[in-house]
Design brief:
The protein is an alpha+beta fold. It has three domains: 68 residues, RNA-binding S4 domain (Structural Genomics Hypothetical 15.5 Kd Protein In mrcA-pckA Intergenic Region, Chain A), CATH 3.10.290; 95 residues, Pseudouridine synthase (2-Layer Sandwich), CATH 3.30.2350.10; 164 residues, Pseudouridine synthase (2-Layer Sandwich), CATH 3.30.2350. It is built from eight helices and 18 strands. Strands 6, 7, 9, 10, 11, 12, 15, 16, 17 and 18 form a ten-stranded mixed beta sheet that branches. A four-stranded antiparallel beta sheet has the order 1-4-2-3. Helix 1 crosses helix 2.
Length: 337
C-alpha cells in the first residue's frame, strides 16, 4: 500500500470472547498478519466502534465495526542503489532473481551499501508496498555472499507470509549444485544432523546436538564424478528440507565431502593435492586453478513454489556461473585427455 488506507470489518456475534488481535487478524487475512495488527494497535491506528483500541489482548464484548487505518509504508532505511539485477521473473507480488557471486544480501557491518537489498529498493521503487509497514523487500531466504543462484523476494506482506509459510512447511523446493572433494561410496543419501554455532569459533556453524542446534536435513546425489585414475571429485545435487545457515557447506564437510573453494569448512590443502593426484588430473596449471578456486563452488540452480496469490506452480532453473562452468569443463577435459 503506497498511500494511507482505511479498512473496515464487521465483527459479528460469534467472535465475542475472542482476543481482539486474533479476531481481527482472522477477518483481515491474508493481507494483514496478527503481528501487523498488533503493530497497528500499538501505533494507535485501530478503532472499534469509534473508540481507539489500546490493548491487543482485550476480549471482544459485543458485535461492531473495526477500523484499521493503515499508514503509508515508511521509507526503507537502506537507500536504493542502481545495481544491475538479473531478474528471472517479476509481478506485483514477488521477484525471482539470479544472484551473482560476490553480492551481499543484507546491509550490515562492513557492507553498509552495495547489497542486494539496496539494489531491490531501487529496482522496485513504489511497487514495494511494505513488509511490516516498512517499504522494503521481503527476503524469504538468503544466499551467502559467494553463493550464486536463484532467490525469491516478496514485495508485500501477503506474498511474504505466503512464501514464508511454504518455506516453513517444506513445500517450497530448492535444489543446489556443488563441486565437492572425493566421491561417496553410496552416490546418494541424506544428512540428518542438527546445526548450531560452533562453540570454538562463533562465526562458524557446526553439526551439534539438537539441544544446542536446530534440525537440519539435506538430501544429496552425485550427478557426475571426475577422475581418470580414481574418481575423486563429485558434482553434487543437494536438496534442502531445512534452511539453516551454511547448511550444505556444513553437512557435506561433516560427511567427508567438503566443497571445493570453501575456505571455512573445506578440506586441508594436503588432502586436496592427494585427491587431485589420485584422480590423475593433469598437473601444473590445472591443479593450481582448482586449489586456488576463490569461493565455495555452490550454486542455487532450481526453485519451485506455489505463487501465493494466483496459486500457480512456479518453477525456475539457472545455469552455472562462468567460474563453475569453467571448472566443470576442465574436469571433463582432464578425464578425456
Amino acid at each position: 500500500m503506497s498511500k494511507a488506507l482505511d479498512v473496515c470489518f464487521e465483527v459479528e456475534d460469534h467472535l465475542i470472547g475472542q482476543r481482539f488481535d486474533k479476531a481481527v487478524a482472522g477477518l483481515a487475512a491474508p493481507e494483514f498478519s496478527r503481528e501487523r495488527v498488533k503493530q497497528l494497535i500499538a501505533s494507535g491506528h485501530v478503532w472499534f466502534d469509534g473508540v481507539a483500541v489500546k490493548n491487543p489482548s482485550q476480549k471482544i464484548s459485543n458485535a461492531g465495526i473495526v477500523l484499521l487505518q493503515v499508514p503509508e509504508a515508511a521509507p526503507a532505511e537502506p537507500v536504493g542503489e542502481d545495481i544491475k539485477l538479473d531478474v528471472v521473473f517479476e509481478d506485483d507480488d514477488l521477484l525471482v532473481i539470479n544472484k551473482p557471486v560476490g553480492l551481499v544480501v543484507h546491509p550490515g557491518a562492513g557492507n553498509e551499501d552495495g547489497t542486494l537489498v539496496n539494489a531491490l529498493i531501487y529496482h522496485c521503487g513504489d511497487s514495494l508496498s511494505g513488509i511490516g509497514g516498512v517499504k522494503r523487500p521481503g527476503i524469504v531466504h538468503r544466499l551467502d555472499k559467494d553463493t550464486s543462484g536463484l532467490m525469491m523476494v516478496a514485495k508485500n506482506d501477503f506474498a511474504h507470509q505466503g512464501l514464508a509459510a511454504q518455506l516453513a512447511d517444506r513445500s517450497l523446493s530448492r535444489v543446489y549444485h556443488a563441486l565437492c572433494w572425493d566421491v561417496p561410496t553410496l552416490l546418494q543419501g541424506k544428512v540428518n544432523a542438527p546445526i548450531g554455532r560452533d562453540h570454538k569459533h562463533r562465526t562458524r556453524m557446526a553439526v551439534t546436538s539438537l539441544a544446542k542446534g536446530r534440525e537440519a536435513l539435506t538430501y544429496y546425489r552425485a550427478i557426475k564424478t571426475f577422475g581418470r585414475g580414481q574418481k575423486t571429485i563429485s558434482l553434487m545435487e543437494c536438496r534442502l528440507q531445512t534452511g539453516r545457515t551454511h547448511q550444505i557447506r556444513v553437512h557435506m564437510s561433516h560427511i567427508g565431502f567438503p566443497l571445493i573453494g570453501d575456505h571455512v569448512y573445506g578440506a586441508p590443502r594436503t588432502k586436496q593435492i592427494s585427491l587431485l593426484n589420485r584422480g590423475d588430473f593433469k598437473a601444473g596449471g590445472f591443479q593450481d586453478e582448482v586449489l586456488s578456486f576463490p569461493r565455495q563452488a555452490l550454486h542455487a540452480g532450481e526453485i519451485k513454489f506455489i505463487h501465493p496469490r494466483s496459486e500457480e506452480e512456479m518453477h525456475f532453473t539457472s545455469t552455472y556461473p562462468a567460474d563453475m562452468q569453467a571448472l566443470i569443463a576442465a574436469f571433463e577435459a582432464s578425464d578425456k585427455a
